[in-house]
Amino acid sequence: MSLLHAPSETTPLSQLFSLAGKVCLVTGGNRGIGLAVATGFAEAQAAGLAIIHSCAATADLAATRAAEIHAKYPHTEVRVYQADVSKAQEIEDVTRRVFADFGRLDVVVANAGVYTETPALDMKPEEAQFVTGVNYFGPLYTAQAAARIFKENGGGKIIMTASINGHMVLRPQYESIYCATKGAVCHLTRALAAEFAKWNIQVNAVSPGYIDTEMTTELVNKNPELIKTWMNDCPAGRLCKVWELKGVYVFLASGASSYVTGADYVVDGGHTVY
């Protein structure tokens, strides 16, 4: 077995967390958590970064974000690609393109996701299918595409963006289908970690709590009472700043996590301890 990502006993701690020479792919990398993760990888000296956005409407934003990252971290080559993660062939094709363009692929982050506030009894089948397509099948198809390349090339790392909604039902909005998809991602992470380990592929997840992103701002603007309930339920008493997630993703992408697989890192200010 090729231990592509395993450090040696004498590897300095500073190098354990470095992504120097590595190429990373992030779905949904043009905003919110995905953008923070992509930026964190560039800060950690990644050689290449592929930002995957979902459609023509997000192309300009993705290109702008890529240019901003490269301007700040010129050592990182940043490229933008479009793919609907709910379509298996699209994410398969784009992952192969990234591998061909950069000549290697080391880390894939299945981050793209969507959210719905529709109560369960009002939800139409097409809405449930859309959310499930992006939030569950998206990570599955992304992991499949990554694993096919990693299996052929000595290993790699897959990181899923799950949610504390995969561990508990949050109130007062409940979010039944969103919770269900994120719970599925948490268990998918464990199942794939067990199945892929023989190919030196590590699969882990990050389960953020409430993060100060554009999506959260949109929710709070529509219902200011939400923030009061969330903060009452959170020991930290505040939203997580999106940059506070960078460290855990870099850890999981780097050699520092060489013996970590099937794990789910909850980053929620203590929300799930109640």
TrEMBL record:
It comes from Morchella conica CCBAS932. Belongs to the short-chain dehydrogenases/reductases (SDR) family. The keyword Oxidoreductase applies. Pfam families: adh_short_C2. Keywords: NADP, Oxidoreductase. This is NAD(P)-binding protein. The keyword Acetylation does not apply. GO terms for molecular function: oxidoreductase activity, acting on NAD(P)H, oxygen as acceptor; oxidoreductase activity, acting on the CH-OH group of donors, NAD or NADP as acceptor. It comes from the Eukaryota. PROSITE patterns: ADH_SHORT. InterPro entries: NAD(P)-bd_dom_sf, Sc_DH/Rdtase_CS, SDR_fam. Gene3D superfamilies: NAD(P)-binding Rossmann-like Domain.
